[in-house]
Amino acid sequence: MSELFERPQYQTTVPEYERYANAFTSPEPELMQQLVRETNLAFTTPGMLSGLIQGRLLQMLIFMLKPEHILEIGTFTGYSAIYMASALSETGILHTIDNNPEVAHIAHKYFRLAGVENRIRMHMANALTAIPVIEGVFDLVFIDADKENYVSYYEAVLPRLRPGGFIIADNVLWYGRVLQAEVLSDKETQGIAAFNLHVKNDPRIEHLLLPVRDGLMIIRKL
To answer: For domain 16-221, which CATH number applies: 2.40.10.10, 1.10.760.10, 3.40.50.150, 3.40.190.10?
Structure first.
């Protein structure tokens, strides 16, 4: 089972302001459009793709922060990894982890087509097993995997993050379900609610919950 799993089936249509934002953002390259089409054909859960706005945001953050050592937890078909790796310097490396072998061939194919395969190291493993064996200190970590384990992933990577480094966690609004977390018992909603509270109460960091798409938590280690 992949650490990236099916999004809830009750997603609403894309709001008009998000359509407008997409229209006034640098367009999606043809290769990325091709990746989106192939993902839609190959999987019943294409909503796990980050999408244009989030992909471009991650890319811009990499350009601005200039990290050399990135960790991504949750590869899926490689959409977000490509955007991040494309903004890395020639010496930068992105490690990306997923435990679903069905996604690997698509991700590897598009890493090669995008010309970023030399900047990406893909690990097919359980993330909590893989993280300790990846060498070095991380400058930035992107978490987009199974929601019930967000706190565990956070605690696994924070000691490996340099002071002043960043963690970005996706889906922290979880389609609005976090607003009803106290009455919902599904493990994904409870996992995200627990993660948000954990981050809020952590004196080791400062953070911003950004309401982009399904919510991004941006965390800076003090």
So the answer is: 3.40.50.150
